Amino acid sequence: MNSIEKLVQIFSQFPGIGPRQARRFVYYLLTRANGTLEDLSLNIKNLKNDVVMCDNCKRFFEKKNSQLSVCRICSDETRDHSVLMLVQRDIDLESIEKNGSFNGIYFVLGGSVSILEKEPEKRIRIKELKIFLEKKIKEGLKEIILGVNWNPEGENTGDYVAKELKQITNNHNIKISHLGKGLSMGTELEYTDSETMKNALRNRG
Ligand SMILES: [Zn+2]
């Protein structure tokens, strides 16, 4: 396969990008100066060196020369570690953090479970979540908020997680609440502003 086709194939695997858009990206890159491409490839290379996954919440964070394996949020003692919000993607966490309406901790599920999914355990980090919960329960976890998108796939993801955690939450008397109850249908957390998020948190049920 030639260089153009190879890159087209790579870009086609990006979320939301089809083969035609992928091809446009490649031709766009061909029109850029050499410096731009070198800069781009260097930044891509650095991504894996500079960014690691948090041992606790599984979000990606910049480790900036330190040997930290746990992110800033998880190691922040001023946050409320008794409330845990489950989100589908890093980008949801970032958006909630940006509007500053939540002071608990997070866990990134890393995907979603569609309604016809046969192997949901392969789509999200349910095993890792259970391990993380064991640890947080010992530290006094009281509530789990399903911070999933308020659309059919998000709802289904929330239902699956709630079902999987039922035994743990029942045994340890942990409340499971749903952020979606305070959002309107079709809401994606990524695009939720601070006021809407505050309302959703207040009205979670
Ligand atoms: Zn973390």
Explain what the structure shows.
It is a single chain. The chain is an alpha/beta fold and 205 residues long. The chain is 44% helix and 12% strand. The chain has 7 helices and 6 strands; from the N terminus they run αααβββαβαβαβα. The strands form 2 sheets. The protein has a 4-stranded parallel beta sheet. Strand 5, helix 6 and strand 6 form a beta-alpha-beta unit. Helix 1 crosses helix 2. The longest helix has 20 residues. The radius of gyration is 19 Å and the shape is globular. The site of zinc ion has 8 residues, from loops.
Question: Short description, anyone?
Answer:
Helix content is 44%, strand content 12%. With 205 residues, it is of the alpha/beta class.
Instruction: Tell the overall outline.
Output: globular
Tally of helical runs? 7
How would a textbook summarize the main sheet?
4 strands, parallel
Uncertain ranges: none
Average pLDDT reading: 91
* Spatial sequence of strands, sheet with the most strands: 4-3-5-6
Relative helix content: 40-55%
Number of DSSP-assigned strands: 6
Termini Cα gap: 53 Å
- What fraction strand? 5-15%
Structural class: alpha/beta
The kinds of small molecule bound in this structure are: zinc ion
